[in-house]
Design goal:
CATH architecture of the largest domain: 3-Layer(aba) Sandwich
Bound molecules: pyridoxal-5'-phosphate
CATH topology of the largest domain: Aspartate Aminotransferase, domain 2
Number of domains: 2
Distance between the termini: 54 Å
Structural class: alpha/beta
Amino acid sequence: MIYPGNLKSKLPNTEQSIFAIMSKLAAEHQAINLSQGFPDFDISGELVERVHYYMKAGFNQYAPMPGTDRLRQAISTKVLKDHGITYDPDSEINITAGATQALYTAISAFVRDEDEVIIFEPAYDAYAPAVRVNGGNVKFVQMDLPDYTINWSHVAKLMTNRTKMIIINTPHNPTGTLINEEDMTQLERITNNSDIVILSDEVYEHLIFDGLQHQSVCRFPELARRSLVVGSFGKTFHATGWKMGYVLAPENLMKEFRKVHQWVVFAVNTPIQMAIADLLQDDKNYRNLPAFFQQKRDFFLGLIKNSRFRPVPCKGTYFQCLDYSAVSDESDLDFARRLTIDHKIASIPLSPFYMNSRDDKILRFCFAKKDETLVQAAEILCKI
Ligand SMILES: Cc1ncc(COP(=O)(O)O)c(C=O)c1O
């Protein structure tokens, strides 16, 4: 017998991700899929051409374990330009198979049995299972509506001598909110004189609107020395299927990160790393992202302004949350299912992002779509 009869799951309460569920339902019912976060438009032709070029030029074998020199150097230069901070390409930058692997590896590298990790809800669903599979316990802090703000004195009260890590996410999926300078100062204050590691998920770093600025944790020196910053080229270059990400961290943290990284994946896709390094040389390849996605957000909001859905303010990411309480009192799971099956439009309900399935009657819609997709989606929403 291969499996003992009393096999005990390490993640007994983990179900299939809501993203997989809603995307499958959308495909089954030929619904417009504004659920999972990925663009339906083409990626840069130049990027595709550069990947071809490097494949044909023989860059098809293992990359160095931390990533190619050229990509790490290009990231270092970019971070200096964006934030005025220097990360050493050799010892403080690592390329990963998407942000997901970066997050998992960081959690594995630092969280031990019975360690506590603070996570803010609604929370991107990759964090808590990674903590639990590594033996840690999660302490959830719900952000305060209507603007999804963080009550830092509440966070401070939850901290114990077992608190090993705090995971933040800005711009925030699913709500589209941002952590501001004052939040970072508060985080710095409450973690001062502790060994707490900050894991900062910044995959939507370039998707920020209305002239607001991304407050990367790396801009705050006291926080930066205890932080791992996670980025994703899947988001920046509209290529989520390529699963290419990176981590920035001071050398002592990066050393531990790499000890695990080498056994999780060792190295990631060589020709794509080379191609991305080329595109990072010129910031025209990403500096228009805020304007590009702000236009999409505003276009979508304009189209649905006469509907009965009420927008929740979206300052960043490519997700627009809509309150449907004027339309239905169904649970968000039921309503999202019915929208997909009966009305042919798929979204993501927010309750699965809460440990206690809190239901504020809000659905998340991805607006990283062609204008014609958004027009079709809005026509449906306006009729409901
Ligand atoms: C907040 C957040 N973190 C991490 C990821 C994962 O990024 P990647 O596709 O690079 O693994 C996503 C993807 O949707 C995300 O929204």
